[in-house]
Predict the 3D structure of the following.
Amino acid sequence: MKYYPVGLDIKDKCVVVVGAGPVAERKVRMLRAFGADVRVVAPHATTYLERLALAGRICWFKRGYRSADMKGARLAIAATSEREVNEKVSRDAKKKGIWANVVDQALACEFIAPAVIKRQGLVVSVSTDAKNPPLSKEFKEFLEERIDEFFSGRNK
């Protein structure tokens, strides 16, 4: 499969994240960094996501996923450890014309989320076309060091 790299304006757009564990937390952090209106659906959440919900920075539905949770969404991310739930999220999103990303299941995705670096107006994404996510992460970390060096030298 080949993915076309694109930048999406998700500022103030509703993105549904189903799941609230460490993987979902990473997705939520990145979505919020780009201004998304994040709605999380999961019976339990990481401490960080609980704090965001208590502060009103995300909307957390503290329960299992329902098809109606897709209402108003522009994107959906399925990040649970339950394959059946992730597949249902993907099917429901497709029915409503919503692009879905199913973590660790590239064939069920309309889009993949690359590894992203965001520094001082610079946005760099790294992807292996969903073939080798650990390599994307490793290369992102390599680039982060270089970018941080670049900006620290520039700001002197």
Remarks:
- The chain has a mean pLDDT of 92.
- Strands lie at 14-18, 37-41, 59-61, 75-78, 99-102, 115-119, 122-126.
- The radius of gyration is 16 Å.
